[in-house]
Amino acid sequence: MTRFILQRALWGLLVVMSVVTLVFFLIFVAGDPAVTILGPQARAEQIADFKSKKGLDQPVSKQFLSYLGILPCVRKDSPKYEREDGSRGFCGVLQGDLGESYSHHESVADVIGHRLPRTLLLAALAILFELLIGLSAGIFAALRRNRWADTTIMFATFVGISLPTYVTGPIALLLFAFLLGWFPFGGYGVHALDHIYHAILPSLILAVAGAATYARVMRGELIETLRHDHVRTAKAKGMPPTRVVVRHAIRNALLPVVTLIGLSLPFLVGGAIITEKIFAWPGLGLLTIESINSLDAPVIMAVVLMFGVAVQLGNLLADIAVAALDPRIRLG
Amino acid sequence: MRSTPKTERFVVRAVGGAVLLSAIALLIGWVVASFPKAPIGPRYVGAGNETPRAGGTFVFAAGSNIHTLDPHFAYDTLSTAACRLLYDGLLDYDYDGEMIPSLAAELPTVSADGTIFRFVLRDGIKFHNGREITAEDISWSLHRLLSNRIGSPGYPFFKSILGAPAYHAGEAEHIEGIVVIDQKTLEFRLAEADQTFLNALAMPFAYPIAREHVEALEQAEGIDAVGRQPIGAGPFAFLRWERGVQVELERFDDYWAPAARPDRMVFLENISGDVASARFRNGDLDIIYRPSKVNRLFLRSAEAWAPYRSESPSPSVFALGLNCELPPFDNVHVRRAVAFALDRSKMEKLNPGEVIAATQVLPPMLAPHDPKLPTRQTFDLDRAKEEMRLAGYPNGIEEPVTVWVRGEGDVRLAQLFQQELKAIGIEIELKQVTFATYLRETGKPRVAQAAFTGWHQDFPDPSNFMDILFHSRSIHPQNSENRSFYRNAELDDILDRARPETDRDERLALYAKANAILAEEAPWAFLFYPVDMFAWQPYVKGFRPHPVWLNEYRHVWLDLPRKRVSQSIYEEEAQP
Question: What is the pLDDT of residues A290-328, one digit of tens each?
């Protein structure tokens, strides 16, 4: 088990490293951040000054190793650039320093610190809706197997899985915000309750595919479980049907759903990019798009790093969880 | 014939199918019929308070990024709009466009020769950090503005202060012409009389900013930092700014005048026109400025919005600039021919309500704009052809003319006028460049033959248009503001006499003369004055468009709690 975890962790690290390396060099192919940030009217000396402050005048390989924290700092405006004894400090990922955003004029950690809670709010609400809608629809369909209610729900889940958020999002905005006026037309709101009110529509859209998946899985599992001996025994001993379903069947059928939730977590954060863009929700997803548009390299790198680690961690945890829940699965 | 079980089953199925199909058709019909309509009127109305009440959050939006909140750098409309809420200056304009004292107790006393202005400050004026503003603060802020160290774009407006050029060049420690007499009294001495000096002082560039705060910030984080967390003396204090997302301000209760009403102001950034329009009609935005085209047409025609919208010409002018140094436009007759050839009413038809055909450089609200000017800038094909004949091109010009365009809007304009210029024998070729290239290249002599151009006023004075755009002094080897390179000694002389003239009527008469010369000489073929549109929610009170400040939201109040209007009302109103 330990060996398996170690192996997987190393493999994950390798994947994250390759992604980070690839993106770092891609940014340099994409264009010159100094020109993009300072605008077309910037003077040559302004651009030179910016490049020297951010270390962009150094060779790319040197910048990359410095970004990782293997070579000393190249960003002259970093407080860690020079140590008190005059030697050069380190300011890379290994030192826990993600750098300073070019366009936000604050540390990348602060920028992400602002945005992350909003994305988490969206993700939390989305999981809530996924479970609420998905599980109840799945259970209902399983109990009415092969009747019209089941067929309708299964058709709906099929549509739900097939429709991407860039189709459902604008339709929801048009219908529920613009035409019916039940929800705000995107945006983030101005105070705590307002934030939640603004989050409902985007999180519902974010939840559509997940809810549909859970409904199908739940239906299948529940139908399977209802055939098991222990359910038949419970029925035979005269237990009321509701109790049989709730106590004996649903509990068992929930197991695979739990695994699915674990696996979906990183994707919920990553998948919010499109939803956040459609609903103008200023979270991590929108930050990703903004920073790509403005070639804000430190932010792009940090977001890529975060998503990479989150996906690897999620997969690892899911593997471990499956092994822990089902003793028949042996790892290693 | 006896029915067999087979035919019976067929009949049952057929009938069942027909019933099912019609049920589905009915269902679809019902859904279509009861499908919600787009809101044709406001979705919310006010609570009905008669007297202004405090409280609430006022939300408005702009299509792009706010550049800075440092008034010394605020030279774009969005930064100016934000600075108008955060700062106050010595002078301001009322809703008639007349100059009024703001931080100054009254308008300054002026010496007989018009070179010395003495200001006395109001009592009880404070920065947002609670410190009282003194004459020293006004002086210090202007020194910051005019120092070469920060490189503000505002410097040229204050060149007339005695010693300002020397200070800007780093040759003097202080500006000789800014004299602090005592805590409350301040004197400005000019090198020569200049009637636009007070207009310059009313620009956001001259708004005072708290010295101790600025110095600490500049020391710790650099000059840019001031624009990210400012301390001013305006009706609202800075709360937070998430760059690219929104600026939040809170009411400043220690304000010298009656405090503003809303608790908070939220200025959203990067909301495109379409999204802003949808949000406005949904009740998410409290006011909208320049809605997208479709929504503008809608808001203009919807009866229910009539009491809550305004349209007024913007203090700006758009034109086709003709380079007076390059052929064929070095010939005044060719320039006049172009000015006669363009049918501006086409533009008005294509963009109903968005533009007014221009006949002169001064926009309609700026004296001495003259609607009865014997004009040479309206469509008249015969006179255009006659001018071409006088120019010596009775059969047109062989070489096509290159017209510089900045973007899609210019291209559409050019396409509109291509045929008309062809009718008088001028072929045009478009040269599309980025805005930066456009600014750089059209500012150099003898580069661009013609270019779409325009001007938005910095302050309401005719000199701001004419001196900058057409005085030969504005021609430079680089960065000329006189981009048509028009030189006219007579015009220069009139402008030089008008600028310092203290007699208001005499001054306006001189500018009227200059205005007529420019229409006649046609260094620009004037195209249109844009019309600004605002629409606001019924519960937003106290807003009206300001003749000088584009987005002036200092005096709004919110009639809360707002009430939802039921959908049925839209439908009733939709009936003819």
Answer: 888 888 899 999 999 988 888 888 778 877 777 776 666
Chain B nearest-CA distance from A46, in A, is 13
Residue B576 confidence (pLDDT): 40
User: For the residues B182-207, what does the mean pLDDT come to?
Assistant: 94
Residue A64's φ and ψ, nearest 5 degrees, are -65, -45
Strand partners, B563: B45
Residue B11, both tokens: 């009949």
Give the residue among B115, B97, B116, B69 at the shortest CA–CA distance from B202. Answer: B97
In this predicted structure, the answer to whether residue A268 has a pLDDT above a threshold of 80 is no
Which candidate from A103, A114, A185 shows the least CB-CB separation from B278?
A185
Note the Cα A141 to chain centre separation in Å. 29
Partners of A103 on chain B (C-beta within 8 Å) are 243-244
| Residue with token string 């604008």 | A170
User: Average pLDDT, stretch B293-306?
Assistant: 90
What is the pTM assigned to this prediction?
A: 0.85
Give the amino acid at B530.
P
Which parts of B269-335 are beta strand (E)? Answer: 287-289, 309-313, 316-322
CB nearest A181 (choices: B39, B225, B266): B39
The DSSP 8-state label assigned to residue B156 in this structure reads: G
Q: How far apart are CA B355 and CA B367, in angstroms?
A: 19
Tens-place pLDDT, residues A69-96: 888 888 888 878 888 787 888 888 888 8
Peptide bond just before B262 cis, omega within 30 deg: no
Q: How many CB pairs under 8 A join A and B?
A: 63
Tokens of A106: 């604050």
Instruction: Report the C-alpha gap between A293 and A286 in whole angstroms.
Output: 11
- Helix, strand or coil for residue B153? coil
Does A280 contact B35 at a Cβ distance shorter than 8 Å? no
CA distance B270 to B246: 9
Q: What is the spatial distance between Cα B67 and Cα B88, in angstroms, rounded to a whole number? A: 19
What is the pLDDT at residue B483? 94
Confirm if B48 and B564 have CB atoms less than 8 A apart. no
**Closest partner residue to B38 among A103, A105, A178, by Cβ?**
A178
Mean pLDDT, chain A, rounded, equals: 86
Kindly report the nearest CA distance between residue B31 and chain A, in angstroms. 13
Pairing of strands B246-251, B109-110: unpaired
In eight-state DSSP terms, residue B176 is T
Q: Of the candidates B526, B532, B404, which has an alpha carbon nearest to the alpha carbon of residue B465?
A: B526
Tokens representing residue B211 in the block: 């010295």
B39 secondary structure, DSSP code: P
Residue type, A191: H
Contact check, Cβ <8 Å, B282/A190: no
Cα three-residue angle B467-B469-B474, rounded to 5 degrees: 70
Cβ-based neighbours of B490, under 8 Å, separated by 6 or more: B517
- Alpha carbons B175 and B164: distance in angstroms, whole number: 5
Residue B93, beta-bridge partner list: B99
Using the structure block, give the residue that is written with the tokens 């729900």.
A153
Q: Which residues of chain A does B248 touch, with a Cβ-Cβ cutoff of 8 Å?
A: 190
Span B119-146, pLDDT tens digits = 999 999 999 999 999 999 999 999 999 9
Using the beta-carbon criterion (under 8 Å), do B275 and A179 form an inter-chain contact? no
Query: Chain A interface, mutation test: which of B67, B282, B288, B558, most A Cβ atoms within 10 Å?
Result: B282
Instruction: State the Cα–Cα distance between residues B91 and B401, nearest whole angstrom.
Output: 46
The set of residues, in sequence order, having a beta carbon less than 8 Å from that of B88 and lying 6+ positions away, is B102, B103, B125, B207, B208, B232, B233, B234, B235, B256
Instruction: Write out the two tokens for A237.
Output: 């001993």
Q: Contact B520/B529 with Cβ under 8 angstroms? A: no
**Tokens, residue A101:** 């955003």
To test the contact with chain B by mutation, choose from A104, A190, A286, A290 the residue with the greatest count of B C-beta atoms within 10 A, namely A190
Question: B47 or A34: whose pLDDT is higher?
Answer: B47
